[in-house]
Amino acid sequence: MSEHADIASLPFEKALAELEQIVTRLESGKVDLEQSIAIYERGEALKKHCETLLKAAEARIEKITLKPDGTPSGTEPLDVD
Q: Which pTM value belongs to this model?
């Protein structure tokens, strides 16, 4: 079992909050090298998890399409690009 397996069960908000804490700790410069590497690796895993959750959320968002007269005609996937 991966040491970061618990990350997969974190909701987006908690994963992001932990990632922000890691960034703050690394930016402080008060963490020894070995611990910096370990928390950096966890931060990378948290970042990937957050990106995955965001992509899943984007896929669920739909855009309402309109008929020429302005009335709703249905929905289609939201193009975020």
A: 0.71
